[in-house]
Every structure is written in C-alpha cells, then in structure tokens.
Amino acid sequence: MTVSFRDMVEKLRREGHLEDIGKPVDIRHIAALVDKSEKALVFHNVIDYAMPVISGVANARERIGAAFDCDYAEVYKHIDAGLSKPIEPEMINGGPVREVVLTGGDVDLFELPVPLFSIHDGGPMITAGVTIAKTADGALNAGIYRFLVREKNLTGIDIVTPNDMQRLALQAFQREEALPISINLGTHLAINVGATYRAPLGQSELAIAGGIAGAPVQLTPGQTVDVPCIADAEIVLEAEIMPTGWTKPEGRFGEFTRLMGGLHWNPHVRVKAISMRKDPLYYALHMPWEVILPGAPNREAAVRRAFKMANLDLVDVNITPGGSCYFHAIVSIRKRPGDAKHAILATLIASDIKHVVVVDEDIDVFNGTDVEWALATRVQADRDIVTVPDLRAKPLDPSLDITPGITPITTKCGVDATIPDHLPKERFERIEYAYADSLDLSDYRGSESEASKPSDVTDISELAGEVKAVLAKEPIYFAKLSEIFETKGFKALARALGELHSTGELWQDAQGRLCLANSEFAAEPPPSI
User: 352, 361 in Cβ contact below 8 A?
Assistant: First the structure.
C-alpha cells in the first residue's frame, strides 16, 4: 500500500470513486456539493483561489476500502497489523512538501481555500490537519484537530476535550512556553486513521500508521520549529500553540455526532511557515462523514481484539453510521450458553461504545431490517437488556448531564438479541421458499408462450402406497416429498396424501414433518386438548 495522499487520489480516480469538477465554484458551496455527491470531488476552479480543493475522500465505505487496497470489511486487519507490528517513521531530508516554502510576511492563510461547512460555524476552519508535537522525552504525538482561521498567520486549535495534545499544550502553558507543532494537510488515510487511534501510553500513532500501511511514514525536519512534518503531505503549516491558555472563543463546530457543538475556549496558534508541493491539493475533510467512517475500523478492531481476549467466537461486527460510527455496535456470534451477555460486556469495554446489540450468526449485522427482526422476535426486555452505570463517557454525547469541572459518566446498555438457549429452535426457523436457490425469474420472462405438458396419469392408490412406504422410514417435509415423487406430479402427490389422510394414516411430527399415524414419530396432542 502506498502512503502517499497523491497516489491515493489517483487510485480513487482510476477506480471511479472520484469526479473532477472544472466549472467555477463558490467556496461556500463546496460542503453542500460534496454532501450531494456519490463520489469524492476535486474542484479545480475555486473562485478567487489558485489551489484546487478535494473533499469527500472518505465519505463512503467503498472509498475507504479502495484507499487501503481491500474491501472495507478487511480494513480492520490493516489496523490490527498497525497495532501488533508498528513501524517507526523514518527521517529524510526533503520531500515533495519542501518544494515551496513561505516564511515571515509571506505566510498568508487566507490564500488557502478553506471552505465554510455549516451555517453555524464560527468561520472557515482547517479540518484535516494531522498535527504532530513532541513530548518531553522527544517522542512524537499525532492527532487531528480543527483550526479556525483568524488572521493571515493565526488560528485557534480545538483541544477543549482531554487528550494528549491538550496535555502537552497545558504543560507548555504552565512553563509559559509555546508548544511547537506541524499541521500536515493531505495525508494518506492510513496516517489519518493511525493519528486518530487512541493509542496505548508509550505507543506512537505514527508507528501505528506505518504498521497499517506496511511502510514507514517519512518525516522531514521542520525549518522554523523543532518538530518534523510528513514529507509527502500536500501542505504543512509550521506553527506554535501560544501560551495564552484556554481563553479565546472558538467555534461553533459541527461535531462527529452530526450535531453542532457549542462555543469552545481554546488557545491560539501562530503559523510561522507554510511549505507545500508546487501543485498542492487542499484537502477539506468533510464533516461529519470523513471523521466517523474512517474511525469505524478503529473501533471494530478494538472489539475484535476484546472478543479474542475473552475467547468469544465473533462472526461479524458493524460499528454503525447511525451511531456516528462511535456509540453503537452490532455484533454476531456463534453462541455457547452465557456467551451473549459476555459479548455485551466485552463490546462495552472495548472502546467508547455506548450501546451494543448481540445477535446470532444467522443475522446480517449490516442489514437494519434483519437486526430489528431479531430484536422483535428474540428479546424479552426484563431478561435480555443489560445496563451498566457509572462508566467513562464521551463528553460530546449531548444526552449527558454535564456539571462544570466534573468528568461526565454514562450508563451503557447491551441487548441480547440471540435465540434464548431454553426455547425450542423450531420457533425460530425462517421462511425459506422452495427452490429459491435454483430458480431465475429471467428464465420465465419473454413473449414466447408454450403450452405446459400435463403429468402422466397416475394411479393415486398405488402412489399413496409408495408414499406410505417412504413415511414409514422417517418424517419428511412436503417439499422434500415432492422432490422424491417429482415424476408423479404435484397434484397427484397432493391427492395421494389426501387419500392417506382420509383413512387416518397420515400424521405429523412435532416439527410439522409428515409421518404415519401411530408411528414413533407422531406428535402427541397437548394434555389440555
């Protein structure tokens, strides 16, 4: 897999996942046009700007799969590789991002085509910046944050939520020092996914990204800050988080919950240099889908790892878009007694998942109707719904009770929508149409018509005797019996069975299969009848 954003864009173009727009477009219209598109879009003629804008790269699962050279359902395997076999980044001196370097008075953020997204946004904001900072021991931390453009060389940075970047900025603020950072725009999805993974302490997000891609992320030294940048990014902003504290109003922002967040109080960021390719693409990460969809494989990988540790037989997992690819999981399992409740607990601790539905392997976790059917037919609320209070919450959950200065907690919920162990399995046998696997409607279409050939005349009494001999051996469903006697014709078989019924010789077993009356297979009527 390539780790170049440029190569990834070309691959999406070749495979029909991207459309080039040559007509002039108002920068205010970009977000709405991307939302209406079934493909990623490249706007080559943005009014008043020299640089093209690309957006919607990760707005659909199939595009994410294409970027990772696999089906979307296999993306989690790359993340597992990144976690189990991380590859440390390598330092080079140079790279495409150093083709043009602007410093001092030449730095002008207003020349970047930064779109407006929501009508309630505080202004144009940089959304796709993979931000790198150094820890006290020289290790690199990476994450993706939003930067509201304020002046030609000044932005805010949205780090109001507790995370490693906030911690580093707070430490620098307490020392009354600026925190050097590089903001990398236009990087491969492997780097974006690695940067947003909640890495264990001491594990590098950039090393995870290298493991995901199967190749090290190449870094080059900063020219005005002591922090490296990604060598083949489209654009890099070398900057410092100013030691002003969380005192500047910023926002509002559209959040991954598909809701508008409130006004935040954040530090300012001073941009010292802009470096870029000679022909850069400005990547405008489209909110919220380009945030939530690439994040789903992270949580899927976490669930799979939790199930492996818990010795549960996982069939499939869906981190649902309806749950913002964050709060909701649907998992299917091959169940042993007690496994469903165990699966609920394993899923709820795997990530910040809030609600989980556990289903049997016959349920398609990606089919909402199938899952709802399992909920309707396999769940008793007092028996199958599990709630777990006082757990860590995602602060952006708008349903939380928020008390200033107190870390919010949540109650998580799991639903066991598997077939109860103590109930007879025949209650849950699906309707299966006879011959569904072998018939094709197109074979019966067309204008030609031919007369059907009637079956040969059959001696019904003789056929009834043959049917009786078969039923004496084992119970058989009508459909199977019709296959055995297919040459006799459906109508003749029905008449033969009617004759056996009229003589009191035909019966059924407990599963509804045809058998002979008074045989060992015959079902007994309930005592109350």
Answer: no
Contact 45, 23 (CB under 8 A): yes
- Residue 27 CB coordination number (10 Å): 18
Which tokens sit at 407? 């870390």
Residue 474 C-alpha from the chain's centroid: 48
Amino acid at 525: P
The residues with which 241 forms a beta bridge, in sequence order, are 179, 269
pLDDT confidence bin for 116, thresholds 50/70/90: confident
Structure token pair of residue 482:
């019709």
Burial of 9-26, coded b for 16+ CB within 10 Å and e otherwise, reads bebbeeeebbeebeeebe
Cβ neighbourhood burial of 523 (10 Å; 0-12, 13-18, 19+): middle
Give the pair of three-digit tokens for residue 73: 């359902």
Rounded to 5 degrees, what are φ and ψ at 140?
Answer: -100, 135
Total residues belonging to the chain: 529
Establish how many alpha carbons lie within 13 A of residue 191's alpha carbon, considering only the half-sphere containing its beta carbon.
Answer: 31
Which of the residue ranges 96-100, 209-213, 442-446, 519-523 would you say has the lowest mean pLDDT?
A: 442-446
- Beta pairing partners, 515: 507
CATH number (1.10.10, 1.10.260, 1.10.287, 2.60.120) of 455-529 reads 1.10.10
Q: Are the beta carbons of 130 and 144 closer than 8 angstroms?
A: yes
Q: Average pLDDT, stretch 478-489?
A: 92
Q: Select from 405, 487, 442, 340 the least CA-distant residue to 162.
A: 405
Q: What is the third-level CATH fold of 78-278? A: Pnp Oxidase; Chain A (2.30.110)
Q: CA-to-CA distance for 334 and 119, rounded, in angstroms?
A: 47
**Domain positions in the chain:** 78-278, 300-426, 455-529
